[in-house]
Amino acid sequence: LKQIIARKEDVVKQNVEGIAFLMKKNKIDVFTGVDSFVDKNTIEVKGKENKKITKKKVIIATGSKPASLPFIEIDKERVITSTESLKLKEVPKEMIGIGGGVIGMELGSVYARW
After folding, report:
1. What average pLDDT score do residues 33-49 get?
2. Distance between CA 103 and CA 82 in Å, rounded?
3. How many Å apart are CA 71 and CA 20, to the nearest integer?
4. Contact 10, 3 (CB under 8 A)
5. Is the Cβ–Cβ distance between 23 and 30 less than 8 Å?
6. How far from chain centre, in Å, is Cα 69?
């Protein structure tokens, strides 16, 4: 499991650095923060710097956030998300997966191998 986690961390690092390199190489501006549309061509970015950006074309990369259920508290110890499941130090004896999305199915198949 340690080797798998180390490999995952390395792949994530390579991907992040590779994407940053490609953005810089292709002169693509990246703004990080909480964004909202002011109009069809203007986005307001609230982050380290607050700014309004007006462009003809914009790509919004929202990332992902695990869904929760109203009757389950995600405490990141006993009840975890896919993020924490990729950081486990050992494979639990028992595990219940809630959700049948792509990430849940993939993680279920990985942990089912042990």
Report:
1. 90
2. 7
3. 39
4. no
5. yes
6. 19
